[in-house]
Specification:
With 197 residues, the chain is mostly helical. It has helices at residues 2-37, 46-54, 56-68, 76-111, 113-139, 152-168, 178-196.
Amino acid sequence: MSALIDSLGIAIEVLRVVFLVVAGAATAVCVVDWAVRTRRVSPFSGVARFFRRSVDPVLAPIERRVVRGGGLPSTAPWWALGAVVLSGILVLVALGFVRGQLAVLAAAMAMGGGRGITRVLVSWAVGIFQLALIVRVILSWVSVSPTSRWVRWAYVLTEPVLRPLRRVIPPIGIIDITPIVAYFLVWIISGFVLSAL
């Protein structure tokens, strides 16, 4: 078990570097493509022709979604860059979550008995709830229906906690801070519960 946890730790570190390099390269490509699209680079230059031939077909699906959403086609590179960065963050968070849960499972197995199983179940429940909160926060940035089969689970898990918090905690401007408050409340309460076990 510890070999698997160590392997995941190494994989996370390697992927962190890979995603950083990919994000840097994507940033460079997106900046140049944006410059070509906004005519900051001559549309008749070799760079512009190369980007229209090679990069624009890759960004075409993103551009269609941006235009359907009422955005400008010239912002497609920025949306693509955001998708690359967000994908990297999500992969790293997911692997970190799995690694943390495996570490909890290994510690519980070493502890043995009912206490160890209870600690694992509490830790997993808290981890899944916090993951659902993160999914909700990310989904609040994009327009995804709460009834979509891919995200419904996050709303079902978090709404019973967030609804009472919204009655007590008002939004700050247009920002609803109840997911952040719920995340830290659950983290603090789980710390007390796990230390009592």
